[in-house]
Specification:
heterodimer; A: 296 residues; Rossmann fold; 4-stranded parallel β-sheet; two-stranded antiparallel sheet; 42% helix; B: 303 residues; alpha+beta; 2 domains; 8-stranded mixed β-sheet; 25% helix; globular
Protein backbone atom coordinates (compact mmCIF):
# COMPACT_ATOMS: atom_id res chain seq x y z
CA UNK A 1 0.00 0.00 0.00
CA UNK A 2 1.49 3.34 -0.99
CA UNK A 3 0.84 6.38 1.14
CA UNK A 4 -0.59 8.45 -1.62
CA UNK A 5 0.50 10.16 -4.77
CA UNK A 6 3.09 12.91 -4.96
CA UNK A 7 1.86 15.40 -7.56
CA UNK A 8 4.37 17.39 -9.59
CA UNK A 9 2.12 20.33 -10.35
CA UNK A 10 2.93 23.23 -12.64
CA UNK A 11 1.68 25.50 -15.36
CA UNK A 12 3.20 24.20 -18.64
CA UNK A 13 6.81 25.14 -19.47
CA UNK A 14 7.82 25.76 -15.88
CA UNK A 15 10.40 23.04 -15.26
CA UNK A 16 8.22 19.97 -14.68
CA UNK A 17 10.06 17.71 -17.13
CA UNK A 18 13.44 18.69 -15.71
CA UNK A 19 12.12 17.82 -12.25
CA UNK A 20 10.93 14.43 -13.52
CA UNK A 21 14.34 13.79 -15.09
CA UNK A 22 15.93 14.64 -11.74
CA UNK A 23 13.61 12.28 -9.87
CA UNK A 24 14.24 9.48 -12.38
CA UNK A 25 18.00 9.96 -11.92
CA UNK A 26 17.97 10.08 -8.14
CA UNK A 27 15.80 6.96 -7.94
CA UNK A 28 18.00 5.02 -10.33
CA UNK A 29 19.58 1.95 -8.89
CA UNK A 30 22.71 2.10 -11.04
CA UNK A 31 23.62 5.75 -10.76
CA UNK A 32 26.53 5.65 -13.25
CA UNK A 33 24.44 6.33 -16.33
CA UNK A 34 21.97 9.06 -17.15
CA UNK A 35 18.32 8.04 -17.36
CA UNK A 36 16.94 8.00 -20.91
CA UNK A 37 14.62 11.02 -21.32
CA UNK A 38 12.22 8.76 -23.22
CA UNK A 39 11.99 6.37 -20.29
CA UNK A 40 11.60 8.60 -17.23
CA UNK A 41 8.87 6.35 -15.77
CA UNK A 42 8.20 8.60 -12.80
CA UNK A 43 4.47 8.00 -13.20
CA UNK A 44 1.75 8.93 -15.69
CA UNK A 45 0.50 12.49 -16.07
CA UNK A 46 -2.77 12.93 -14.17
CA UNK A 47 -4.63 13.55 -17.43
CA UNK A 48 -3.28 10.45 -19.23
CA UNK A 49 -6.30 8.75 -20.76
CA UNK A 50 -4.75 5.29 -20.57
CA UNK A 51 -4.08 5.68 -16.84
CA UNK A 52 -7.72 6.73 -16.35
CA UNK A 53 -9.28 4.04 -18.55
CA UNK A 54 -7.31 1.32 -16.78
CA UNK A 55 -9.48 1.93 -13.71
CA UNK A 56 -12.78 2.43 -15.54
CA UNK A 57 -13.20 -0.78 -17.53
CA UNK A 58 -14.99 1.34 -20.14
CA UNK A 59 -13.87 4.18 -22.42
CA UNK A 60 -13.58 7.66 -20.95
CA UNK A 61 -13.81 8.88 -24.56
CA UNK A 62 -17.52 8.01 -24.55
CA UNK A 63 -18.08 10.52 -21.75
CA UNK A 64 -18.08 14.31 -21.98
CA UNK A 65 -15.16 16.19 -20.43
CA UNK A 66 -17.34 17.23 -17.49
CA UNK A 67 -18.55 13.67 -16.95
CA UNK A 68 -15.00 12.28 -16.85
CA UNK A 69 -13.87 14.96 -14.41
CA UNK A 70 -16.49 13.78 -11.92
CA UNK A 71 -14.87 10.32 -11.93
CA UNK A 72 -11.28 11.50 -11.58
CA UNK A 73 -11.11 11.76 -7.76
CA UNK A 74 -12.15 8.11 -7.34
CA UNK A 75 -9.66 7.06 -10.00
CA UNK A 76 -6.78 8.86 -8.26
CA UNK A 77 -7.85 7.40 -4.92
CA UNK A 78 -7.70 3.91 -6.43
CA UNK A 79 -4.28 4.50 -7.98
CA UNK A 80 -3.01 5.90 -4.68
CA UNK A 81 -3.81 2.58 -3.03
CA UNK A 82 -1.89 0.45 -5.53
CA UNK A 83 1.40 -0.79 -4.18
CA UNK A 84 3.06 -0.61 -7.58
CA UNK A 85 2.15 2.99 -8.31
CA UNK A 86 5.15 4.98 -9.60
CA UNK A 87 4.31 7.64 -7.10
CA UNK A 88 5.34 10.91 -8.81
CA UNK A 89 2.70 12.15 -11.20
CA UNK A 90 2.88 15.28 -13.27
CA UNK A 91 -0.26 17.42 -13.38
CA UNK A 92 -0.98 20.56 -15.41
CA UNK A 93 -4.60 20.92 -14.28
CA UNK A 94 -5.24 23.80 -11.90
CA UNK A 95 -6.38 22.73 -8.44
CA UNK A 96 -10.13 23.06 -8.91
CA UNK A 97 -13.32 21.92 -7.26
CA UNK A 98 -15.90 19.89 -9.17
CA UNK A 99 -19.57 20.97 -9.33
CA UNK A 100 -20.28 18.55 -6.44
CA UNK A 101 -17.77 20.41 -4.26
CA UNK A 102 -15.16 17.66 -4.32
CA UNK A 103 -11.55 18.54 -5.21
CA UNK A 104 -10.40 17.17 -8.58
CA UNK A 105 -7.19 16.13 -6.81
CA UNK A 106 -8.47 14.57 -3.61
CA UNK A 107 -6.54 15.11 -0.37
CA UNK A 108 -6.97 11.47 0.69
CA UNK A 109 -5.14 10.28 -2.45
CA UNK A 110 -2.36 12.80 -2.01
CA UNK A 111 0.94 12.43 -0.18
CA UNK A 112 1.91 15.92 -1.24
CA UNK A 113 2.05 18.39 -4.10
CA UNK A 114 5.27 19.95 -5.32
CA UNK A 115 4.27 23.15 -7.10
CA UNK A 116 6.84 24.38 -9.60
CA UNK A 117 6.47 27.99 -10.64
CA UNK A 118 8.35 30.08 -13.19
CA UNK A 119 8.39 33.77 -13.95
CA UNK A 120 5.41 34.28 -16.30
CA UNK A 121 7.53 36.57 -18.48
CA UNK A 122 9.74 33.58 -19.33
CA UNK A 123 6.82 31.15 -19.45
CA UNK A 124 5.23 33.31 -22.17
CA UNK A 125 8.23 32.77 -24.48
CA UNK A 126 8.60 29.04 -23.88
CA UNK A 127 4.84 28.48 -24.08
CA UNK A 128 4.70 30.27 -27.45
CA UNK A 129 7.36 27.89 -28.82
CA UNK A 130 5.58 24.89 -27.35
CA UNK A 131 2.19 25.90 -28.74
CA UNK A 132 3.53 27.04 -32.11
CA UNK A 133 1.94 30.45 -31.65
CA UNK A 134 3.12 34.04 -31.33
CA UNK A 135 4.29 35.37 -27.99
CA UNK A 136 1.34 37.78 -28.03
CA UNK A 137 -0.99 34.80 -28.38
CA UNK A 138 0.66 32.91 -25.52
CA UNK A 139 0.44 36.03 -23.33
CA UNK A 140 -3.24 36.22 -24.18
CA UNK A 141 -3.75 32.52 -23.37
CA UNK A 142 -1.96 32.93 -20.04
CA UNK A 143 -4.38 35.72 -19.16
CA UNK A 144 -7.55 33.84 -20.06
CA UNK A 145 -9.45 32.74 -16.96
CA UNK A 146 -10.95 29.73 -18.80
CA UNK A 147 -7.89 28.46 -20.68
CA UNK A 148 -7.61 24.69 -21.07
CA UNK A 149 -5.65 21.95 -22.84
CA UNK A 150 -7.14 19.07 -24.85
CA UNK A 151 -10.70 20.34 -24.66
CA UNK A 152 -11.57 19.49 -28.25
CA UNK A 153 -14.99 17.82 -28.38
CA UNK A 154 -14.80 16.73 -32.03
CA UNK A 155 -12.11 14.11 -31.69
CA UNK A 156 -10.41 12.03 -29.06
CA UNK A 157 -7.20 13.23 -27.49
CA UNK A 158 -4.67 11.06 -25.65
CA UNK A 159 -5.10 13.28 -22.64
CA UNK A 160 -8.18 14.41 -20.81
CA UNK A 161 -9.18 18.06 -20.84
CA UNK A 162 -7.08 20.03 -18.39
CA UNK A 163 -8.42 23.30 -17.03
CA UNK A 164 -5.36 25.53 -16.60
CA UNK A 165 -7.25 28.78 -15.88
CA UNK A 166 -5.05 31.89 -16.17
CA UNK A 167 -1.40 31.71 -15.12
CA UNK A 168 -2.21 33.65 -11.94
CA UNK A 169 -5.27 31.56 -11.12
CA UNK A 170 -3.24 28.37 -11.71
CA UNK A 171 -0.57 29.46 -9.24
CA UNK A 172 -3.10 30.60 -6.66
CA UNK A 173 -5.24 27.47 -7.02
CA UNK A 174 -2.33 25.30 -5.89
CA UNK A 175 -0.69 27.82 -3.55
CA UNK A 176 -3.96 28.35 -1.69
CA UNK A 177 -5.08 24.69 -1.65
CA UNK A 178 -5.64 24.05 2.01
CA UNK A 179 -6.20 20.34 2.40
CA UNK A 180 -3.00 19.02 0.86
CA UNK A 181 0.64 19.10 1.92
CA UNK A 182 2.59 21.21 -0.52
CA UNK A 183 5.96 22.69 -1.32
CA UNK A 184 6.18 25.64 -3.69
CA UNK A 185 9.44 26.11 -5.57
CA UNK A 186 10.51 28.59 -8.22
CA UNK A 187 12.26 27.51 -11.41
CA UNK A 188 14.68 30.39 -10.96
CA UNK A 189 15.82 28.99 -7.59
CA UNK A 190 16.07 25.51 -9.09
CA UNK A 191 18.46 26.93 -11.69
CA UNK A 192 20.39 29.47 -9.62
CA UNK A 193 20.61 27.61 -6.35
CA UNK A 194 20.14 24.05 -7.52
CA UNK A 195 21.62 22.11 -4.62
CA UNK A 196 19.65 23.92 -1.93
CA UNK A 197 16.39 23.92 -3.87
CA UNK A 198 16.56 20.28 -4.98
CA UNK A 199 17.55 19.23 -1.46
CA UNK A 200 14.32 20.81 -0.22
CA UNK A 201 12.43 19.06 -3.01
CA UNK A 202 13.99 15.71 -2.07
CA UNK A 203 13.10 16.10 1.61
CA UNK A 204 9.52 16.89 0.66
CA UNK A 205 9.22 14.01 -1.83
CA UNK A 206 10.84 11.41 0.47
CA UNK A 207 13.82 11.03 -1.84
CA UNK A 208 17.47 10.74 -0.78
CA UNK A 209 18.45 14.27 0.29
CA UNK A 210 22.16 13.91 1.09
CA UNK A 211 24.44 16.23 -0.82
CA UNK A 212 26.17 13.51 -2.82
CA UNK A 213 22.92 11.95 -4.09
CA UNK A 214 21.36 15.29 -4.97
CA UNK A 215 24.44 16.61 -6.73
CA UNK A 216 24.99 13.37 -8.67
CA UNK A 217 21.40 13.38 -9.90
CA UNK A 218 21.63 17.07 -10.79
CA UNK A 219 24.75 16.45 -12.86
CA UNK A 220 23.00 13.64 -14.73
CA UNK A 221 20.07 15.84 -15.74
CA UNK A 222 21.94 19.07 -16.46
CA UNK A 223 20.04 21.02 -19.11
CA UNK A 224 22.75 20.50 -21.74
CA UNK A 225 22.64 16.74 -21.21
CA UNK A 226 18.86 16.62 -21.64
CA UNK A 227 19.18 18.74 -24.75
CA UNK A 228 21.92 16.50 -26.11
CA UNK A 229 19.83 13.38 -25.51
CA UNK A 230 16.96 14.98 -27.40
CA UNK A 231 19.25 15.86 -30.31
CA UNK A 232 20.57 12.32 -30.44
CA UNK A 233 17.38 10.31 -30.14
CA UNK A 234 14.40 12.66 -30.04
CA UNK A 235 11.92 13.16 -27.23
CA UNK A 236 8.49 11.57 -27.25
CA UNK A 237 6.94 14.44 -25.27
CA UNK A 238 7.89 17.05 -27.85
CA UNK A 239 4.98 18.60 -29.77
CA UNK A 240 5.02 17.43 -33.41
CA UNK A 241 5.57 20.87 -35.01
CA UNK A 242 8.16 21.88 -32.45
CA UNK A 243 11.85 21.90 -33.26
CA UNK A 244 13.00 20.77 -29.84
CA UNK A 245 11.46 20.42 -26.38
CA UNK A 246 14.59 21.42 -24.46
CA UNK A 247 15.22 24.82 -25.96
CA UNK A 248 17.01 27.39 -23.79
CA UNK A 249 15.77 26.76 -20.26
CA UNK A 250 17.08 30.21 -19.57
CA UNK A 251 16.26 32.42 -16.60
CA UNK A 252 15.47 35.99 -17.59
CA UNK A 253 15.20 35.40 -21.35
CA UNK A 254 12.32 37.88 -21.33
CA UNK A 255 14.77 40.74 -20.82
CA UNK A 256 16.21 40.09 -24.29
CA UNK A 257 13.12 38.73 -26.02
CA UNK A 258 9.93 40.49 -24.93
CA UNK A 259 8.95 43.97 -26.10
CA UNK A 260 8.15 46.63 -23.47
CA UNK A 261 4.46 46.32 -24.44
CA UNK A 262 4.52 42.55 -23.92
CA UNK A 263 6.19 42.93 -20.52
CA UNK A 264 3.63 45.56 -19.56
CA UNK A 265 0.76 43.30 -20.52
CA UNK A 266 2.06 40.31 -18.52
CA UNK A 267 2.61 42.53 -15.50
CA UNK A 268 -0.86 44.06 -15.88
CA UNK A 269 -2.44 40.59 -16.05
CA UNK A 270 -0.46 38.98 -13.23
CA UNK A 271 1.00 41.71 -10.98
CA UNK A 272 -0.65 40.47 -7.80
CA UNK A 273 0.76 36.94 -8.04
CA UNK A 274 4.07 38.19 -9.45
CA UNK A 275 4.45 40.44 -6.46
CA UNK A 276 3.60 37.64 -4.04
CA UNK A 277 6.26 35.33 -5.46
CA UNK A 278 9.04 37.83 -6.06
CA UNK A 279 8.74 38.54 -9.77
CA UNK A 280 8.15 42.26 -9.13
CA UNK A 281 10.30 44.44 -6.93
CA UNK A 282 9.03 46.77 -4.23
CA UNK A 283 8.33 49.46 -6.83
CA UNK A 284 6.32 47.11 -9.00
CA UNK A 285 9.03 46.70 -11.66
CA UNK A 286 9.50 43.21 -13.12
CA UNK A 287 12.62 41.31 -12.03
CA UNK A 288 13.83 37.78 -12.79
CA UNK A 289 13.23 36.61 -9.22
CA UNK A 290 13.86 38.36 -5.92
CA UNK A 291 15.90 36.34 -3.42
CA UNK A 292 13.60 34.17 -1.31
CA UNK A 293 14.50 36.02 1.91
CA UNK A 294 13.14 39.24 0.42
CA UNK A 295 9.68 37.77 -0.11
CA UNK A 296 7.05 38.98 2.29
CA UNK B 1 -40.43 -13.18 -21.99
CA UNK B 2 -37.70 -11.32 -23.80
CA UNK B 3 -39.21 -9.35 -26.66
CA UNK B 4 -36.13 -8.83 -28.85
CA UNK B 5 -34.07 -11.51 -30.62
CA UNK B 6 -30.75 -10.61 -32.25
CA UNK B 7 -27.73 -12.27 -33.79
CA UNK B 8 -24.21 -10.80 -33.59
CA UNK B 9 -20.66 -11.96 -32.77
CA UNK B 10 -21.85 -15.46 -33.72
CA UNK B 11 -24.33 -15.43 -30.82
CA UNK B 12 -28.10 -15.45 -30.53
CA UNK B 13 -28.96 -12.67 -28.09
CA UNK B 14 -32.34 -12.27 -26.38
CA UNK B 15 -32.82 -8.85 -24.86
CA UNK B 16 -35.26 -6.87 -22.77
CA UNK B 17 -33.67 -3.77 -24.25
CA UNK B 18 -34.26 -2.88 -27.83
CA UNK B 19 -30.84 -2.83 -29.52
CA UNK B 20 -31.56 -1.35 -32.95
CA UNK B 21 -27.92 -1.61 -34.00
CA UNK B 22 -28.02 -5.42 -33.91
CA UNK B 23 -29.20 -7.64 -36.78
CA UNK B 24 -32.38 -9.60 -36.02
CA UNK B 25 -32.01 -13.32 -35.33
CA UNK B 26 -33.09 -15.26 -38.40
CA UNK B 27 -33.91 -18.54 -36.66
CA UNK B 28 -35.70 -19.66 -33.52
CA UNK B 29 -32.61 -21.23 -32.00
CA UNK B 30 -32.42 -20.78 -28.26
CA UNK B 31 -30.53 -17.81 -26.95
CA UNK B 32 -26.82 -18.00 -26.18
CA UNK B 33 -27.00 -14.78 -24.20
CA UNK B 34 -29.83 -13.14 -22.27
CA UNK B 35 -29.92 -9.43 -21.47
CA UNK B 36 -32.40 -8.61 -18.74
CA UNK B 37 -33.09 -6.01 -16.08
CA UNK B 38 -32.85 -6.58 -12.36
CA UNK B 39 -31.10 -5.50 -9.24
CA UNK B 40 -27.29 -5.37 -9.27
CA UNK B 41 -25.37 -4.79 -6.03
CA UNK B 42 -24.21 -1.24 -5.39
CA UNK B 43 -21.17 -2.62 -3.54
CA UNK B 44 -19.74 -5.04 -6.07
CA UNK B 45 -18.64 -8.65 -5.70
CA UNK B 46 -17.53 -10.73 -2.72
CA UNK B 47 -13.79 -11.40 -2.91
CA UNK B 48 -13.15 -10.19 -6.46
CA UNK B 49 -9.82 -10.96 -8.13
CA UNK B 50 -9.66 -7.41 -9.33
CA UNK B 51 -11.58 -4.42 -7.96
CA UNK B 52 -11.82 -0.74 -8.80
CA UNK B 53 -14.73 1.60 -7.98
CA UNK B 54 -15.97 0.99 -11.53
CA UNK B 55 -15.42 -2.69 -12.20
CA UNK B 56 -14.78 -5.88 -10.31
CA UNK B 57 -14.13 -9.27 -11.77
CA UNK B 58 -13.94 -12.78 -10.41
CA UNK B 59 -14.24 -16.26 -11.93
CA UNK B 60 -16.94 -15.97 -14.61
CA UNK B 61 -18.37 -12.72 -13.26
CA UNK B 62 -17.98 -9.04 -14.07
CA UNK B 63 -19.57 -6.25 -12.06
CA UNK B 64 -19.48 -2.99 -13.99
CA UNK B 65 -20.55 0.35 -12.59
CA UNK B 66 -20.95 3.21 -15.05
CA UNK B 67 -21.95 6.09 -12.76
CA UNK B 68 -25.32 7.69 -13.52
CA UNK B 69 -25.93 5.22 -16.36
CA UNK B 70 -26.20 1.63 -15.06
CA UNK B 71 -24.66 -1.18 -13.09
CA UNK B 72 -24.17 -4.42 -15.01
CA UNK B 73 -23.54 -8.01 -13.92
CA UNK B 74 -22.11 -10.21 -16.65
CA UNK B 75 -21.97 -13.91 -15.80
CA UNK B 76 -20.96 -17.26 -17.27
CA UNK B 77 -20.82 -16.05 -20.85
CA UNK B 78 -24.60 -16.14 -21.10
CA UNK B 79 -26.22 -13.47 -18.99
CA UNK B 80 -26.12 -9.68 -18.68
CA UNK B 81 -28.15 -8.16 -15.88
CA UNK B 82 -28.76 -4.41 -16.17
CA UNK B 83 -29.69 -2.12 -13.28
CA UNK B 84 -30.16 1.40 -14.69
CA UNK B 85 -29.53 4.44 -12.52
CA UNK B 86 -32.68 6.56 -12.14
CA UNK B 87 -32.99 8.98 -15.03
CA UNK B 88 -30.38 7.33 -17.27
CA UNK B 89 -31.03 7.07 -21.00
CA UNK B 90 -31.28 3.81 -22.97
CA UNK B 91 -28.87 5.03 -25.61
CA UNK B 92 -26.08 5.27 -23.05
CA UNK B 93 -26.98 1.90 -21.54
CA UNK B 94 -26.79 0.29 -25.01
CA UNK B 95 -23.31 1.67 -25.55
CA UNK B 96 -21.92 -0.18 -22.50
CA UNK B 97 -24.01 -3.29 -23.18
CA UNK B 98 -22.52 -3.56 -26.66
CA UNK B 99 -19.04 -2.59 -25.49
CA UNK B 100 -17.55 -3.79 -22.21
CA UNK B 101 -20.46 -6.19 -21.45
CA UNK B 102 -20.59 -8.06 -24.75
CA UNK B 103 -16.77 -8.06 -24.80
CA UNK B 104 -16.81 -9.78 -21.41
CA UNK B 105 -19.39 -12.32 -22.60
CA UNK B 106 -17.05 -13.21 -25.45
CA UNK B 107 -14.07 -13.48 -23.07
CA UNK B 108 -16.09 -15.75 -20.82
CA UNK B 109 -16.94 -17.92 -23.83
CA UNK B 110 -13.17 -18.24 -24.42
CA UNK B 111 -13.22 -16.26 -27.63
CA UNK B 112 -10.19 -14.09 -28.35
CA UNK B 113 -11.42 -10.49 -28.43
CA UNK B 114 -9.13 -7.96 -30.03
CA UNK B 115 -9.49 -4.22 -29.58
CA UNK B 116 -9.74 -3.57 -33.28
CA UNK B 117 -11.68 -3.26 -36.51
CA UNK B 118 -11.97 -6.03 -39.08
CA UNK B 119 -12.12 -5.14 -42.78
CA UNK B 120 -12.90 -7.60 -45.57
CA UNK B 121 -10.32 -8.27 -48.27
CA UNK B 122 -11.71 -10.93 -50.64
CA UNK B 123 -12.58 -14.05 -48.69
CA UNK B 124 -10.44 -13.05 -45.72
CA UNK B 125 -10.25 -10.12 -43.36
CA UNK B 126 -7.59 -7.86 -41.89
CA UNK B 127 -7.71 -6.48 -38.34
CA UNK B 128 -6.56 -2.98 -37.45
CA UNK B 129 -5.92 -3.01 -33.72
CA UNK B 130 -4.72 -0.37 -31.30
CA UNK B 131 -5.59 1.69 -28.28
CA UNK B 132 -8.51 4.11 -28.21
CA UNK B 133 -7.70 7.00 -30.49
CA UNK B 134 -5.19 5.07 -32.61
CA UNK B 135 -7.37 5.65 -35.68
CA UNK B 136 -8.90 2.18 -36.11
CA UNK B 137 -12.42 3.29 -37.01
CA UNK B 138 -11.25 6.13 -39.24
CA UNK B 139 -9.07 3.74 -41.19
CA UNK B 140 -11.84 1.15 -41.44
CA UNK B 141 -14.26 3.83 -42.67
CA UNK B 142 -11.74 4.89 -45.32
CA UNK B 143 -11.49 1.30 -46.57
CA UNK B 144 -15.30 1.09 -46.49
CA UNK B 145 -15.43 4.13 -48.77
CA UNK B 146 -13.19 2.23 -51.15
CA UNK B 147 -15.70 -0.59 -51.28
CA UNK B 148 -14.52 -2.89 -48.48
CA UNK B 149 -17.03 -4.40 -46.11
CA UNK B 150 -16.56 -4.05 -42.36
CA UNK B 151 -16.96 -7.04 -40.05
CA UNK B 152 -16.32 -5.46 -36.69
CA UNK B 153 -15.77 -2.08 -35.02
CA UNK B 154 -13.80 -1.89 -31.76
CA UNK B 155 -14.90 -5.31 -30.45
CA UNK B 156 -13.39 -7.92 -32.74
CA UNK B 157 -14.21 -11.53 -31.82
CA UNK B 158 -11.98 -14.27 -33.23
CA UNK B 159 -13.15 -17.86 -32.92
CA UNK B 160 -11.05 -20.99 -32.34
CA UNK B 161 -10.59 -21.44 -36.10
CA UNK B 162 -9.12 -17.94 -36.42
CA UNK B 163 -12.22 -16.43 -38.01
CA UNK B 164 -13.84 -13.08 -37.18
CA UNK B 165 -17.57 -13.25 -36.46
CA UNK B 166 -19.46 -10.19 -37.73
CA UNK B 167 -20.15 -7.75 -34.88
CA UNK B 168 -22.28 -4.62 -35.02
CA UNK B 169 -22.96 -3.39 -38.56
CA UNK B 170 -21.82 0.14 -37.76
CA UNK B 171 -18.77 2.32 -37.24
CA UNK B 172 -18.38 4.92 -34.52
CA UNK B 173 -16.79 8.10 -35.84
CA UNK B 174 -15.78 11.38 -34.27
CA UNK B 175 -16.93 14.57 -35.97
CA UNK B 176 -13.38 15.35 -37.14
CA UNK B 177 -12.99 11.87 -38.65
CA UNK B 178 -16.35 12.21 -40.43
CA UNK B 179 -15.21 15.54 -41.88
CA UNK B 180 -11.99 13.97 -43.10
CA UNK B 181 -13.98 11.19 -44.78
CA UNK B 182 -16.54 13.67 -46.17
CA UNK B 183 -19.32 11.97 -44.24
CA UNK B 184 -22.19 14.30 -43.37
CA UNK B 185 -23.15 13.77 -39.72
CA UNK B 186 -26.37 15.78 -39.97
CA UNK B 187 -28.35 12.59 -40.58
CA UNK B 188 -26.42 10.41 -38.13
CA UNK B 189 -27.19 9.68 -34.48
CA UNK B 190 -24.69 10.58 -31.82
CA UNK B 191 -23.49 7.55 -29.80
CA UNK B 192 -24.60 9.57 -26.75
CA UNK B 193 -26.08 13.04 -26.67
CA UNK B 194 -23.11 14.22 -24.59
CA UNK B 195 -20.38 13.50 -27.17
CA UNK B 196 -19.72 14.47 -30.79
CA UNK B 197 -19.16 10.92 -31.91
CA UNK B 198 -21.59 9.39 -34.38
CA UNK B 199 -22.96 6.00 -35.34
CA UNK B 200 -22.40 5.38 -39.05
CA UNK B 201 -24.59 2.42 -40.07
CA UNK B 202 -23.20 -0.05 -42.60
CA UNK B 203 -25.71 -0.73 -45.34
CA UNK B 204 -24.57 -4.21 -46.34
CA UNK B 205 -23.50 -6.01 -43.23
CA UNK B 206 -21.34 -9.09 -43.65
CA UNK B 207 -23.11 -12.25 -42.50
CA UNK B 208 -20.36 -14.83 -42.81
CA UNK B 209 -17.33 -15.44 -40.64
CA UNK B 210 -14.04 -14.74 -42.38
CA UNK B 211 -10.53 -15.96 -41.51
CA UNK B 212 -8.02 -13.36 -40.34
CA UNK B 213 -5.17 -12.98 -42.81
CA UNK B 214 -3.22 -10.19 -41.13
CA UNK B 215 -3.25 -7.87 -38.14
CA UNK B 216 -1.83 -4.36 -38.03
CA UNK B 217 -1.23 -2.65 -34.70
CA UNK B 218 -1.71 1.09 -35.13
CA UNK B 219 0.09 3.73 -33.12
CA UNK B 220 1.49 7.22 -33.65
CA UNK B 221 4.60 9.25 -32.85
CA UNK B 222 5.72 12.89 -33.05
CA UNK B 223 7.94 12.32 -36.11
CA UNK B 224 6.95 13.06 -39.71
CA UNK B 225 7.65 9.58 -41.06
CA UNK B 226 5.56 6.44 -41.23
CA UNK B 227 7.10 3.25 -39.93
CA UNK B 228 6.12 -0.32 -40.61
CA UNK B 229 7.70 -3.10 -38.67
CA UNK B 230 6.97 -6.77 -39.36
CA UNK B 231 6.68 -8.83 -36.21
CA UNK B 232 7.68 -12.47 -36.42
CA UNK B 233 7.60 -15.62 -34.34
CA UNK B 234 7.35 -15.38 -30.56
CA UNK B 235 7.40 -11.60 -30.73
CA UNK B 236 3.82 -11.63 -32.02
CA UNK B 237 2.55 -12.73 -28.67
CA UNK B 238 2.86 -9.51 -26.63
CA UNK B 239 1.24 -7.20 -29.20
CA UNK B 240 -1.72 -9.58 -29.38
CA UNK B 241 -1.99 -9.65 -25.61
CA UNK B 242 -1.61 -5.87 -25.28
CA UNK B 243 -4.30 -5.21 -27.86
CA UNK B 244 -6.82 -7.56 -26.36
CA UNK B 245 -10.14 -5.89 -25.64
CA UNK B 246 -10.48 -4.86 -21.96
CA UNK B 247 -7.43 -6.79 -20.79
CA UNK B 248 -7.91 -5.51 -17.23
CA UNK B 249 -11.34 -7.12 -16.99
CA UNK B 250 -10.06 -10.35 -18.51
CA UNK B 251 -7.27 -10.65 -15.95
CA UNK B 252 -9.78 -10.67 -13.11
CA UNK B 253 -11.99 -13.26 -14.82
CA UNK B 254 -9.37 -15.92 -14.18
CA UNK B 255 -8.94 -16.56 -17.89
CA UNK B 256 -5.29 -15.63 -18.31
CA UNK B 257 -4.15 -19.15 -19.11
CA UNK B 258 -6.87 -19.66 -21.73
CA UNK B 259 -6.13 -16.25 -23.19
CA UNK B 260 -2.46 -17.10 -23.46
CA UNK B 261 -3.39 -20.20 -25.46
CA UNK B 262 -5.71 -18.23 -27.75
CA UNK B 263 -3.02 -15.64 -28.45
CA UNK B 264 -0.42 -18.30 -29.23
CA UNK B 265 -2.76 -20.07 -31.61
CA UNK B 266 -3.62 -16.86 -33.44
CA UNK B 267 0.04 -15.81 -33.53
CA UNK B 268 0.89 -19.00 -35.38
CA UNK B 269 -1.58 -18.31 -38.19
CA UNK B 270 -1.51 -14.56 -38.93
CA UNK B 271 0.92 -12.00 -40.30
CA UNK B 272 1.47 -9.25 -37.78
CA UNK B 273 2.95 -5.78 -38.30
CA UNK B 274 3.12 -2.57 -36.32
CA UNK B 275 2.42 0.69 -38.13
CA UNK B 276 3.41 4.00 -36.57
CA UNK B 277 2.04 7.14 -38.17
CA UNK B 278 2.79 10.82 -37.54
CA UNK B 279 0.46 12.12 -34.84
CA UNK B 280 0.28 15.52 -36.48
CA UNK B 281 -2.39 15.27 -39.17
CA UNK B 282 -3.79 11.85 -39.91
CA UNK B 283 -2.30 11.46 -43.46
CA UNK B 284 -4.97 8.90 -44.22
CA UNK B 285 -4.18 8.52 -47.92
CA UNK B 286 -0.53 7.70 -47.22
CA UNK B 287 -1.54 5.24 -44.52
CA UNK B 288 -3.89 3.40 -46.86
CA UNK B 289 -1.29 3.34 -49.61
CA UNK B 290 1.26 1.87 -47.25
CA UNK B 291 -1.13 -0.83 -46.02
CA UNK B 292 -2.23 -1.67 -49.56
CA UNK B 293 1.37 -2.20 -50.65
CA UNK B 294 2.07 -4.37 -47.63
CA UNK B 295 -1.06 -6.46 -48.28
CA UNK B 296 0.11 -6.99 -51.87
CA UNK B 297 3.52 -8.11 -50.67
CA UNK B 298 1.84 -10.56 -48.34
CA UNK B 299 -0.32 -11.86 -51.19
CA UNK B 300 -3.55 -10.94 -49.39
CA UNK B 301 -4.63 -8.68 -52.24
CA UNK B 302 -3.64 -9.07 -55.89
CA UNK B 303 -0.76 -6.86 -57.03
Amino acid sequence: MSEGIFWLASYPKSGNTWTRAFIANIRREEPEEEVDINALHTGAIASCRGWIDEVLGFDSADLSHDEVDLLRPAIYRWHAQQADDGGYHKVHDAYTLLPNGEALIPADATAGALYIMRNPLDVAISFAHHSNCSIDQSIENMGRPDFFFCGNTRRMTNQLRQKLLSWSAHVESWANAEKIEKLIVRYEDMRNDSLTTFTRICRFLNLPADEHSVQTALDKCAFDKLKQQEQEKGFSEKAPHHESFFRKGKVGDWQDTLTPEQIERVVADHHKVMQRFGYLDATGQPVTALPLDQLV
Amino acid sequence: MTPFHYHAFGLNIDSHFELPALPQATDDASADVRIHTGSVSTEGLDNPNKATPFYQSSENTLWLNVPDIARFLVTDGNSILVDPYPGSDEQSIRLYLLGSCIGTILHQRKTLVMHGNAVRFGEKCVIFAGHSGAGKSTLAAAFHKRGHEILADDVCAIDAQGRVAPGLPQLKLWQDAANKLEIDTAELDRIRLQVEKYTFPLKQPVTEQLPVAAIYILSSHNLDEFEIQQIKGMKKFNPLKNNTYRMGILEGLGLKAEHLGLCSRLASRVDLARITRPNHGFKLEQLIEMISIDLQKKGIVAA
